[in-house]
Amino acid sequence: MTAPVPLLPPPAERLTAWGRLRDRMLLDPEWHRIIRWFAPLVVTLLAAVLRLANLGHPHELMFDETYYVKDAWSLWTLGYEGTWGDGANEAFPNGDTNALGTTGSFIVHPPLGKWIIALGMGVFGAGSSEAWRLATALVGTATVLLVYLVALALTRSIVAATVAGLLLAIDGLSIVMSRIALLDGTLTFFMLLGFLFVLHDRKRSMPLLGYADPDNRETLWGRIIWRRPWLIAAGVALGAASAVKWSGMYALAGLGLYLVVTDALARRRAGIAFWPMDAAARQGPVTFMLLVPPALLTYLVCWTGWLVTAGGYDRQSDANPLIALWKYHQSMYGFHVGLTTGHPYASPAWQWPLLIRPTAVWVGDGAGCGTDHCISVISSIPNPLIWYAGIAAALFLLYRFVRGLIMRRPMSWAYAVPLVGLAVTYVPWLMFPSRTIFQFYTVAMIPFLVLALVLALREIAGRRDHPLHRRQSGERTVFVVLAVALVLSAFFYPVWTGTSVPYEFWLIHNWMPTWV
What we know:
The model is unreliable at 1-10 (pLDDT under 50).
């Protein structure tokens, strides 16, 4: 009996040079084991170097560090945010914290992010600017690893996951927000952690529903799944995100809807007759109980310092500490909805995709650059290629996703994850057009823009069944994009880290007049 004629030429003839190298390394068990650990280690170490190098510069409270760093030290010493007297900003970098009083201060964000900032100062002292920023920098570094893991869960590709981690590691907005003791980088970490846990839950729970019977015999109702530990973990992570900033609740709500929708679609694939009602009315309440109560409990635990002490703001407003906390939250909510104070770097959300007004978080005199006219700037400008290409990629994924739904064509449901992430980190801010908000809030969007860009780059690179010339041109395009992104990050790194540079050098980084 003769051997069948192969439908495809030998692999070496139908693979690009990159494809042959990739397969040689990833299909070999020993090399695969090495790369599986080496790739995330390299991108995480790169992220650490870019975020930790010269972290203490400048040795002064910059931008909103004036609130969060001092509040963090207050939490560490009092258990709640106290008031600070005159001259505190000038004295604090010298380790002088005598201006801290015991009267509770009205603060407008939950305490977890400030507790995390306080960890560095608790170890190294209040007078070290490296200590103020250390925990935030480590959290920002860990966020790069999280993006790698999320991309790996979505694509099952070490190459795609490595590209995702690399892009976030070198992005300017992520770098800047990891090198300043604000809350948004920590918020991003916990939100992304929640997404990762939800993906693990999907991987574990969806196969439990089974698939449609080959004889097309439908089942009226499906299985209700209670044992979902990853979902409980997601609730804890999203509760922690909300305990950093209330915008974490948007992620909690958005992922809750995502879970119901994906449960419904899984039940349809399993041949369940009443799959919409089954997911919404039967599994939905169980999902809610596994997700929301752990989030609420985590949020309340983060207020322990305020609850167990007596000096916090409004702590004595009611004998019941939980009622007192509720009254305090009403005051905080009133502040947020009424915040319309002007700021030179305020940027409404409609401007964010266009990158109209990045935030300059610090400007120095630039002494010591070797010329007469120098400047030092820390600006939260993202890597422009990563940002604009990420926006374009998100629009591409949205088009492909909607087109697939309308025309009922096969599509990758991995597209939904970055789209959900962008929806919960961007769309809610459009509802507050007059509120004072800033472009650097988009640090929570950057991981999902990177994921969208990686998924789009995979489409550009082509699949194995595409013609060889198509894959060669696609792979060259991807390599050019990555090379240009690396060059731009090297070009912008001085204005992300406050390096003293000639004034003319700084000017060529301002591609729009509004970037100044």
